[in-house]
Design brief:
CATH architecture of the largest domain: 3-Layer(aba) Sandwich
Number of helices: 9
Number of domains: 2
CATH class of the largest domain: Alpha Beta
Helix content: 25-40%
Bound molecules: 4'-deoxy-4'-aminopyridoxal-5'-phosphate
Structural class: alpha/beta
CATH superfamily of the largest domain: Type I PLP-dependent aspartate aminotransferase-like (Major domain)
Number of strands: 13
Distance between the termini: 30 Å
Largest sheet: 7 strands, mixed
Shape: globular
Radius of gyration: 21 Å
């Protein structure tokens, strides 16, 4: 995004990820690039230098304090994106079991379920595939396995815009959650979680680093074939430095967390999220069926808002005109089409207000 204070037309990037970064963070990166430490760029710094280790420790501390992560959890910083966790989770957590439970509520949880088939027989607890992922299946329809090592679910489906209003209730097994698109947008009660993961390119920084918050008692039970870089125990033992660490990704994560701390706490972030998404959902709901939200109201995401217009032609026109006035990357994912506004923490309220105004104006002239 450009600085809204500059003379240029402000640009608001609604992309789902890699997503917009706070302007303050971009400016800091610009200033730091040539010389971060003793005349060296952050991109040239050894991950073993004490100054870098200090940075990683302060990043872990910031994340722990922002999310109030209990001491019984380790915080790991891994390579390979969230997709790698679709394999790392069964490799590390099956602990000899042949079954793990999966809730499928959209594209990403379905992919996690499919990837798990390489390592075990994942048990489908419930799926909303037949409803085109427009809702979360009713809890009374969920069917758990007896032996399942854990329950995996995706807290927010980035493409379909479906979010769990509260964590699934589980008995006798830990919850494993993909929070790639909604981490740091609400407080988390860790009591029923075994593990939470999120790649960074939405709310935490840039692609190349993935945060894994895992209960320490689950470490050290990985399948013998688990590559060391995918082993949670190995990452914990090496403080996520078992191989060359993505130093620049760490550094951006650090800046983003400092920026987030300035905004407040998880409650503040949750309120901002609610305020921004309500602005867009109100335009959709008050339109004369011009804008349609495909998702059942109680499961609507607070961070990814997909919507349709009456025709593909109107959608193209909408996207082109939005783009021309600086409202960027509003195109829906190729698997579902339509439009999508992603409203992560770094998207300022002014950007969302501008989008809401544009949507109303567009309906007036083309509706
Ligand atoms: N899970 C969710 C919810 C996502 O949105 C994404 C990426 N958009 C992924 C997993 C895959 O993440 P990555 O590209 O970092 O592997």
């Amino acid at each position: 995004m450009t600085d809204p204070k500059s003379n240029k037309q402000p640009i608001y990037n609604f992309g789902a990820g890699p997503a917009c970064l706070p302007v303050d963070v971009l400016e800091q990166i610009r200033d730091d690039i040539p010389d971060w430490y003793e005349g060296m760029s952050i991109m040239e710094i050894s991950h073993r230098l004490p100054v870098f280790m200090e940075l990683t420790q302060s990043i872990e501390q910031d994340l722990r304090s922002l999310l109030t992560i209990p001491d019984e959890f380790a915080v790991l910083f891994m390579h390979g994106g969230a997709r790698t966790q679709f394999s790392a989770v069964p490799l590390n957590l099956l602990n000899g079991s042949k079954v793990a439970d999966y809730l499928v509520t959209g594209h990403w949880s379905d992919l996690a379920y499919q990837d798990a088939q390489r390592y075990c027989q994942p048990h489908l607890v419930a799926s909303s595939k037949e409803e085109h992922y427009t809702k979360i299946p009713e809890e009374k329809e969920w069917n758990f396995s007896k032996q399942g090592a854990y329950l995996h679910y995706t807290d927010n489906e980035t493409i379909h815009g479906v979010e769990f209003p509260h964590p699934p209730k589980v008995k006798d097994k830990w919850l494993i959650s993909d929070m790639t698109s909604n981490i740091l947008t609400k407080p988390i009660d860790f009591s029923s979680y075994g593990l939470i993961y999120a790649s960074a390119q939405k709310n935490l920084g840039i692609a190349g680093i993935t945060v894994v918050i895992v209960r320490k008692e689950l470490l050290g039970k990985e399948h013998p074939f688990t590559p060391p870089t995918m082993s949670y125990a190995f990452c914990e033992k090496t403080q996520s430095m078992g191989n060359t660490s993505p130093v620049f990704c760490w550094y951006v994560l650090g800046l983003v967390l400092k920026w987030v701390k300035k905004q407040g706490n998880c409650e503040t972030l949750a309120n901002a999220c609610k305020q921004k998404s309500t602005l867009i959902y109100d335009v959709i709901d008050n339109s004369n069926n011009f804008y349609i939200s495909p998702v059942v109201k109680e499961y609507r995401s607070r961070v990814n808002v997909p919507f349709r217009l009456p025709s593909a032609e109107l959608e193209t026109l909408f996207l082109n005109e939005a783009n021309a006035i600086g409202l960027k990357q509003l195109k829906g994912h190729k698997t579902v089409g339509g439009c999508r506004a992603s409203l992560y923490n770094a998207m300022p309220l002014e950007g969302v207000e501008k989008l809401a105004e544009f949507m109303k104006e567009f309906e007036k002239t083309r509706g």
